[in-house]
Amino acid sequence: MATGERGDLGGYYFRFLPQKTFQSLSSKEITSRLRQWSMLGRIKAQAFGFDQTFQSYRKDDFVMAFFKDPNVIPNLKLLSDSSGQWITLGFASGRLRKI
Hints:
Family: Belongs to the CFAP300 family.
Helix content: 25-40%
Number of helices: 4
Keywords: Cell projection, Cytoplasm, Cytoskeleton
Shape: globular
Main location: cytoplasm
Strand order of the largest sheet: 1-2
Radius of gyration: 16 Å
InterPro entries: CFAP300
Function: Cilium- and flagellum-specific protein that plays a role in axonemal structure organization and motility. May play a role in outer and inner dynein arm assembly.
């Protein structure tokens, strides 16, 4: 399956939005508080768009499709418990499948 094809994902198509910024995480006041709580650099926000109206009764399908989507796996960043480094979902996917 080529990247971006729907496949068996419940019909959802996700796209990574790397240019999306979150002013709420970069304001001076918030940056100061994150530093105070030792969270600066340990919290990150990423944006992904999807092609359908969200329907709460299909939330489980939505979440499963999100974490299996070929556009999400190489882009979603996670903070590693063991190393404290940012890694991608693709790198940690073996561990996530066990959950």
